[in-house]
Amino acid sequence: MKIEIEGNPPYEDSEYGRKYRADAFVLLECMGPHCVDAVVTDPPYGLNIDNQAWDDGDIHIDWLAYQFGRVTKPKGNVFVFCSDFQFGAWYQELGKYFSRLQKFVWCKTNPVERQFKKLNRFAESVEFALHASNPNSYFKLDKEEGIQNYIKTGICSGNERVKKSDGKSMHPTQKPMEVMKYILEAITDEGDVILDPFAGTHTTARAAAALERYYITNDAFPYYWWMPED
Ligand SMILES: C[S@@+](CC[C@H](N)C(=O)[O-])C[C@H]1O[C@@H](n2cnc3c(N)ncnc32)[C@H](O)[C@@H]1O
User: Best mutation site among 54, 68, 106 for ligand 1, i.e. most ligand atoms within 8 A of its Cβ?
Assistant: First the structure.
């Protein structure tokens, strides 16, 4: 599916999808109703992570939830990573368009905070996400034991980490492929179209292509536009 954004065509067009360089708010407005099978995204947490300008301020969860509901097909799913303090707002707003809401937790086996003895509190080792669906939404049902609403992995590291030319990490919050694949395998089927309007290093695109799903991914900020080949 090609989205027409005035003056902003996709900058990469491949077998499984398209990558855009638009403001997510503009991109979503240019999309027709019920055109994707899933929105799977990791928007800014509003925590000013690594002093990144994009992570500072209000992301208008009410408007985004409305748009995610609008562009998703009736049997579709929405999956949003969020910070602790955003969780309630996402729950309330997505609840206006989806009847089932379920938490999901990414448990990090090697969390960023390492000075454990100095913390004087629990080491911050999990990230929340919210899965919004309806009773007839697609969900993979072929496992006897079901699919748990958590995944335990290390944070993204080594060769998987997208690097700048100086060898430093491209993005402070790159999600591991294992996490994205786990989610996409559960809530989408082969051939489905997945939207990620806040894609960062486009992990969602790489995971989708690896699982033979189609993708529309986007990030507004120039420093994430260059992507190495897998
Ligand atoms: C949490 S990061 C996503 C990281 C991604 N999951 C990955 O694996 O690389 C959120 C992204 O949203 C992007 N962003 C923030 N505001 C945006 C906007 N208005 N439109 C499009 N992208 C935006 C930032 O540039 C940032 O890369």
Answer: 54
For 54-93, letters b (16+ CB in 10 Å) and e give bbeeebebeebbbbbbebbbeebbbbbbbbeebeebbbeb
Of the listed ranges 10-24, 50-64, 136-150, 204-218, the one predicted with least confidence: 50-64
Which of 147, 144, 150 shows the shortest CA–CA distance to 127?
150
Q: Which pTM was predicted?
A: 0.94
Ligand 1 atom nearest the C-alpha of 200 is: 27
Closest atom of ligand 1 relative to the 41 alpha carbon: 6
Q: Where are the domains of the chain?
A: 12-111+123-224
Q: What spacing in Å lies between the alpha carbon of 69 and ligand 1's midpoint?
A: 19
What does CATH list as the number for 12-111+123-224?
A: 3.40.50.150
Ligand 1, atom 12: nearest CA belongs to which residue? Answer: 198
Backbone angles phi, psi at 63, to 5 degrees: -70, -40
pLDDT in tens, 51-89: 676 676 788 999 999 999 999 999 999 999 999 999 999
